[in-house]
Description:
The structure holds two protein chains of two kinds. By secondary structure, chain A is mainly α. Helix content of chain A is 87%, strand content 0%. Chain A contains 13 helices and no strands. In chain A, α1 crosses α13 and α6 crosses α13. Chain A is globular and about 65 Å long. Chain B is of the alpha+beta class. In chain B, β30 (597-603) and β31 (608-613) form a beta hairpin. The radius of gyration of chain B is 31 Å and the shape is elongated. Chain B starts with a helix and ends in a 15-residue tail after the last helix. The relative contact order of chain B is 0.08. The chains are: A mainly alpha, B alpha+beta.
Amino acid sequence: MILASLKSAIQKTFANKRLILIFYLTNLILGLIVILPLRAIIDEFVGYRLMGAKLADRLDMDFLFELLLHKDSFLDVMRGLILFVPAVYWLFLLFLSGGALAIFAHNEKYSSPIFWGNCGRFFGRFIRLAIWSLPLLAVFFALPLLAKALQRLFFGSDPYQYITYWGRWLQLGLGFVSFLLFGMVLDYARIHTVLTDERNMRTSLWRGFRFAFENFKRTFGFAALLFVIGGSILAIYNPVANLLAAPAVVIVALLFFTQQFYMILRMGLRLTLYAGQIHLYKTGTSN
Amino acid sequence: MIGVQGFRALLVIVLLTLFYQPALSQNIPVLFDPPLSPRMANYNIDVRLEADTRKLFGKQVLIWHNQSSDVITELQFHLYLNAFRNSESTFMKESGGQLRGHYIEKGGWGFSEVKKIAVVYDKDLLHRLRDVHPSEAPELLAQAVEVTEQMQFIQPDDSNVHDQTVFRIPLPRPLPPGEFIALHIDFLAQLPTPPFARTGAKEEYFMIGQWFPKVGVYIDGKWNTHQFHANSEFFADFGVYNVWITVPEKNIVGATGVEVSVTKNGDGTATHFYHAEDVHDFAWTTSPEFVEFKGQTHDTKIRVLMQPDHAQQGRRHVEAAILSIEYFQHFYGDYPFPNLTVVDPRRGAMGSAGMEYPTLITAGTVYGMPERLRLPELVIIHEFGHNYWYHLLASNEFEESWLDEGINTFSEIEIMNDLYGPAGDMIDLLGVKLNTQQFHRARYISGYDRDPTIRRAWEYYSTGSYATNSYSKPGLILITLKNYLGEQAMGEIMRTYFVRWRFKHPKSQDFFDIVNEVAGQDMSWFIEPAFYSNAHIDYTIAASSTREVKSPRGFDFMMNSDEDTTAGGDADSKSSTEAEFESTVTVRRLGDFKMPVEIEVVFANGDTIREHWDGQELWKKYRYRKPARLVYAAVDPDNKILLDINFTNNSKTVKKQRLGVNKLSARLLFWMQFLMEQPEVLNFYSLFRDVL
């Protein structure tokens, strides 16, 4: 079932490449909103300095410290944008997901009216859904604390550091699981909303929650599979990006394109997740 | 004729000779003959640890030698542990109750109380008392004069009457120059928990420093006995220590000096006897959990006492200790002691990490410390370095903290770079490469202007300023000096300073005298701004330009105009084949610290010119007429002046450096996109929480 969903999801995603482009451009544009002011500051600081040439080779820590300590504006801009822009990005994703889910849910081909129409149609509901899901978010994010509680239960308040060290790995794992679980519930709630045109978001949340946990093996298995695929892509990307270190225009350009290709793959993966979850939901609820 | 007093003294001497002196003195090894130091403050201490209550029950005999030319009328002592008595002490008020992020927990206060002090003057008796176990002393001190009532707490640095970290004892009669005096002191101490400001207890682990009543230093005709401050360490005289430490039998003990014997007492305790010569402090540690690792280099035995959960890093610690000893011996001179003990603090006891005592240092690590995060190595190199800069050369850390911390930072930077450099000698992990020098430079840049380098430790603007001016800035000053004078001259300065001042109390001026002597010139132009002001260096290439030289226009001196003749045309055709360029470079001194500096000017045809500017004026303009365009100019191109607060503005290129800016921007953009899309990766932070 999981593999069938994956196959179907990949097909649907590939059939709607423009969706990938829209999601990717959103990510890129919001990234640029943060980076362009920072780039201007860096350019002013080292644009006509040898340090600028040195940066083409590798990041010099003296430069980094001097940038942070002598250019207050760099940190000011960072502080101003680093939390604000990701929040805006998240809202955009919420907005765009309405359109993407609608296209996948109804086996449509991408068309602007359908996509943007559904983006607008579901956005208000998804915002309400997000607000209603906050208690759930708190519960899931408390999950890593379980590792700490278990540690205290079995090893007391003063355990050896290898206990706390491996406890941290467990916490890390549980942290990822929390992300997956919360994402799953929210996704299935949105899918339910799109498929049934549900207006009561508490109902959607409950239906999403129920579906995710009643079909836990499949829902979690699918989410975990995509998580692993994402991790594998990152594991391939990293050494490739590290190879692209030479201070040459072609190499820097190549690095940029590799980075952006990775981000495009990530967007493809996100949409594959949506499409696959819709497939799972449809088959799960029709039985 | 022998009087009653004399007869009594004689009787005591006879008793001593008959019963005590031979038995103990035979067991005490002689490490250095002749002595290496003046041995002014000599201690015999018997201490028993009551682990459950964190209490120390001590008896000590201090034999103090008046080596000054003054008649001494009082003695002054430190009771360092009283800094942790309550929230009103000078230490706690200055620190706000925390040091390096560590706090004393509720009910975890520490203190030190002197129960009894008695004074003995008799010279012959004193000679024998040196080898006498303190618990046997009272019976022998028949003629001792008790002065407990005369004890008076004083606050030489501030008016905080609640501070009881220094006390004075008026002597019953003055002590002439060259004479000895003995004090028998009974004391009780309680250690703070968890370990705080270097000392204390955590469960079964004890790191015990600044724990006994310690005589101050009589220097320059007066007592130099400062209160315990948050931003300060110590100052003490050299001597011999015989210390009997009684702890639970299962405990492992590490201490300053060499272990002479271990005696099981039959009551579940054991007494460890340690002997140290020519040191000026004594610290010890005990825990039943220590895992021992051993090593050796030359004649020095290394013992590392690791916590069981860090045992897999035991060899790493031994290696770092061996390398530290070998480097310091190679660079500066002989480490005379037969051993070094490295203590790994327990989890939850990091308040005792990263501290130095004679022949005993504390390191600091966590489970899972990556090999390429070289913090344990850095700490061991630094703390061992203090066995040179502070223990062998016993400077006054209260008043001139740079003399130990700053010189030691210089050594630490050099050694880390030599061992693990050139890039990432401190951190070389996940693509981040950070050098020890860069770390110190960052700290310097972040607070270079708040204080002059040298001032009394507790008078700095803040703890951060104390750290900058005691560690980082002087370390960078010395590297800058090395780059100016050359490696050989700097090596000679350091070795001369070490040989001339070991086992003495050097002051800043003593170091500067050697700098002047070796440099063969008066270096006060450098020393004054570097050490006695907050002046900073910032050189920059303020402007640079390059343009093709056109033939002159207008009238020449013969009143011929270029428009009337064909000469202009000829000149133009000439310039097209052999073009000449006029380039200008303007160097500015933005800081108030004047230092000679080099300027590198590079042209498109590969011509490179090195200019030398004395840096006295606020700016200097250089003009060149060359057959090639200017490419760049750089002031201090080799970054020799580490005190320059801004390396980035040291150069100016004619063309814009887009590639580097674009590459960095691309990386930042990617990370921003990545974090927005996958915020769950922030979870990884939890793994590094301990290390950070």
